[in-house]
C-alpha cells in the first residue's frame, strides 16, 4: 500500500490550472523533485481527466533544433552561437556565458564583480590581511631569494586567475621559516603516494603580499625568473623605478638597501 497523499483533490485542480507543466504542479503541491512525484501527479491528473492543453511541455521540444554551429541555452531558451557557451570537456555547458555568469557572480559594495557565495570581493577581503613584517633584514631577503630561485615559482591559477608565489619542498622547517620571516602566505600539506615523502607548500596569493615579496627579491633573481615575473607582473620595473625616484625613497617595508638595486649581481 502506498503512502497517503499529502494534498487534496481541489488543490491539485488549482495547481494544474495555474501551472504550465507537471514540474510546476509538483512545486505548487510542495513535493520533492523526483521521478516518483512526477509519476504520481501525472497519474492523478489523468484519473481526474483534468485539462492539460495549456501545458507548454519541454523547452527543447518547443523551440526545435538549433541551426548548425548554434546551441539553445537551457536558462534563457535563446538560440546562440557556440562561442557564447563555455566549454565543458569535449562539449559545451547547457547555459550560455551570460546566464552562467549571472548565476555565479554579482557585485560587491565597492562596485567590483564578485562570486555570489562571498559577501565581498577578493580585493576587499585582501584588505583584511595583515601587512608583511617590517623588520626583515638584507640577509633574510637574500636567503629568501635563494630559496625562490632554486625551489620557488611564479605561477597563475588558470588562464584568467591571479598569479601567486609558491615554494614546494619536503623540508617542513624551511617552509615554516619562510612564513615566520615574512609573516605572510599560507602553508598546505600535500600527502604523496606510498614510498614518497610528504610535501609542504608555502603560497603567497594576496596582491599586497605577492607584490611586496616580488619587489624584495627582484634584484637577486636570475634572467629566467625575471622573464617569468614580467609575464605576470609587467609593472614591476616601473614600480621599483618609482620607489627609487621618490624623495625620500619610498621603499617597501624591508627594502632598506637602495644600493642593492643598482648593483649588478653578475659582477
Overall shape = elongated
Q: Note the gap between the termini.
A: 90 Å
How many domains? 3
Q: Give the helix/strand class.
A: alpha+beta
Helical content (DSSP H or I, runs of 4+):
40-55%
Number of DSSP helical runs: 12
Task: Please report the first level of CATH classification, the CATH class of the largest domain.
Answer: Alpha Beta
What is the string of SSEs from the N terminus onward?
HHHHEEEEHEEHHEEHEEHHHH
Mean pLDDT, nearest integer?
Answer: 80
CATH topology call of the largest domain:
Endonuclease I-creI
In CATH, what is the homologous superfamily of the largest domain? Homing endonucleases
Low-confidence stretches: 253-267
Spatial order of strands in the largest sheet: 7-8-10-9
Assigned CATH architecture of the largest domain: Roll
Largest sheet: 4 strands, antiparallel
Strand content: 15-25%
- Tally the beta strands: 10
**Radius of gyration of CA atoms, rounded to a whole number:** 30 Å
Compose a concise summary of this entry.
The protein has 12 helices and 10 strands.
Description of the structure:
- With 267 residues, the chain is of the alpha+beta class.
- 41% of the residues lie in helices and 17% in strands.
- The protein has helices at 9-18, 22-29, 35-48, 59-63, 97-104, 122-126, 138-151, 172-182, 207-217, 223-232, 236-245, 259-262, and strands spanning 70-72, 79-81, 85-88, 91-96, 105-107, 113-115, 152-156, 163-169, 186-190, 199-204.
- The strands form four sheets. It has a four-stranded antiparallel β-sheet with strand order 7-8-10-9. Strands 1-2 form a two-stranded antiparallel sheet.
- The protein is elongated.
